[in-house]
Design a protein that fits this description.
Layout lengths: L1 E7 L5 H14 L4 E5 L19 H8 L10 E2 L5 E4 L10 H14 L2 H5 L3 E7 L18 E6 L3 H16 L7 E8 L6 H12 L3 E5 L3 H8 L4 H4 L4 H16 L6
Parallel strand pairs: 1-5, 1-6, 2-4, 2-5, 6-7, 7-8
Antiparallel strand pairs: 3-4
Length: 254
């Protein structure tokens, strides 16, 4: 299985990017499990036509250990398996700790052995890299990390902060930073700025997603561009990005 974590600051288009990568890989006949690690629990909505699924933490709070895997892992119409960690009641508890709990639940219920995904995609909020949000970086979870950024200063700052967190785990067989994904915002000299950041971090820019109105049209319909614009240039860009990421990621044992 290839275990891939996608990080990036809030609002950078990370979840949209992850959904398109997941859908593109599913189109290739791969079994893909997308795990949303944002307390908003909206990572997988594009696969489910905007429907919000029960989160792992909400299910545990309501049913304890008395539930089945199909209550927390749903299949989207595009073939992507979807799960959401969820978070604490707003204003109480630690969202990072919620991620840890969700991972433990999936492990205890043998989710990966049951579904046998070819690719596991973690969609992780990157504004804060505390112990909980850094959990996918730890041994036994993700192996490869890709950071979504634009040429905007705050996006690049967040990318550098995430890269520092990954570097702190160096030498412990934890996740590695494998590349940057440019989600363009039409900032002046954007490609140069992102390329300079990539060079500083000694990783490649694995794909450049253009700013395109098709994304907004797809989001309004709670889907991906593969539904209404399957033969468009943007859809092809996502397919190429997904292939590059898949080829760069290492296979690891379940």
């Amino acid at each position: 299985m290839k275990r891939i974590a996608i990080y990036g600051k809030g609002g950078i288009g990370k979840s949209t990017t992850v959904c398109h990568i997941a859908a593109a890989l599913a189109q290739q006949g791969l079994c893909v499990l997308q795990l949303g690690c944002d307390p908003k629990a909206d990572s997988t909505s594009a696969h489910l036509k905007g429907e919000r699924q029960a989160t792992i933490l909400d299910t545990v709070r309501a049913k304890g250990d008395n539930f089945t895997l199909d209550e927390i892992i749903r299949g989207g119409e595009d073939g992507v398996l979807c799960a959401e960690c969820g978070g604490p009641v707003p204003g109480s508890g630690c969202a990072g700790r919620g991620i840890v709990t969700a991972f433990e639940v999936l492990k205890a219920h043998h989710a990966y052995e049951v579904y046998k995904p070819d690719v596991l995609l973690y969609d992780v909020l990157g504004d804060v890299v505390c112990g909980g949000f850094a959990m996918p970086l730890r041994s036994g979870y993700a192996r490869d990390v890709f950071i979504v950024t634009s040429g905007e200063k705050m996006a690049l700052y967040a990318a550098a902060n995430i890269a520092l967190a990954i570097d702190n785990f160096k030498g412990r067989n934890y996740a590695r930073l494998t590349g940057l994904i440019q989600n363009s915002r039409n900032v002046k000299d954007e490609e140069r700025l992102v390329a300079e950041m990539a060079e500083e971090l000694s990783v490649p820019v694995v794909g450049i997603i253009p700013r395109d109105g098709q994304i907004q049209l797809a989001e309004e319909k709670n889907t991906t561009v593969f539904t209404d614009f399957p033969e468009g240039k943007l859809a092809q860009t996502y397919r190429e990005l997904a292939k590059t990421i898949y080829d760069l990621a290492e296979e690891v044992e379940i």
